[in-house]
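Section 3.1: Structural characterization of target chains.
Under the original work plan, the team committed to producing a structural model for every single-chain target entering the pipeline before any wet-lab resources were allocated. The record below documents one such target. The sequence was received from the expression subgroup and is listed exactly as submitted; it comprises 357 residues.
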Amino acid sequence: MTHYKLSADFKLPANPKPIVVIGAGGIMEEAHLPAYRKANWPVLGIYDLQLEKAQRVASLFGIPAVYDSLEALVSNVPPDVVFDIAVPASRLIDILNQLPLGANVMMQKPMGETLEAAKEILHICETKHFTASVNFQMKLIPSIIAAKHLINQGAIGDLHDMEIRMNIYHPWELWEFLFGIPRMEMLYHSIHYMDMIAYFLGMPKQIYAKTFQHPKQMQLASTRSIIIFDYDRPIRAFVNTNHGHDFGLDHQDSFVKWEGTKGAIKATLGKNINFPKGEADHFAYFLSDHSTDGWIEATIPGAWYPDAFIATMADLQCAIEDPTSAHITSVKHAYDTMRLVEAAYLSNDRGGTPLPD
């Protein structure tokens, strides 16, 4: 009987660079900065368009310098800092153009609002010789890392089925900039799941997708999506999201499930249920060569907030130290994820096959 190691470990930098943050919104306050505090990584400064907002966040996290302009921040920080940018995607290009040559950059997703913007962002990063990441942190949630380690050890055999289901109620009012934009759910939420599927299964041959509005959330371009990945081998992989399930917690779902030829894994991502407070995560797996044990429940240390944000920054910091590192959050990987998103919107716009006569 084979024994497998269950671990959520990831590589940490030997000599982490200091961090400065651009943007003092909710995700910075709730995830990025608690992550850096937990990892004991220094944050030297902060800038936000709203100075008083930056001052409040700086006082919460003991950030020594608050800047009233991006130019002031760039001019006063050491050359080896990591610029951690958490702003609406529409502002990324302008900010990146103001950063110095050779900068280290972490961007909150998405990588622009369109594939054309993603191309420009990639071009800026390459021509200015940035070491740059996009913060697709959901593939680095501790339970997702644990699943990847099990799969890489061959625990569930050949992976042939991956399902991501979110049947939840999401308080979109927390992000006012999402209202009125032409692309929403797939670009700002399901993009994480598309990125995750590609991380486990590689890029698909093509995408089928449909994204829907909700009759109670018509101010938003869409809040529900079905996205199918089509591979040239017998693999079923899809995303099914519904953010409008406002009927209590009993039947809310938030999980990723993997099935292989020798077993299966299911990770429940509790943060999405009763968001932003969240519920507990759960992790279980079934191994055919341990079938008498049934489904095995395991406790995976850590959580999406803040641990996955430690992992994404660690991935970037390791790439700064060693350019040959895996760098799974790199802008090149992120550009491929933006290609998936673009394909999903193109599929949505083209519509289905009409019924035959």
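Residues 268 and 282 are 5 Å apart (CA to CA).
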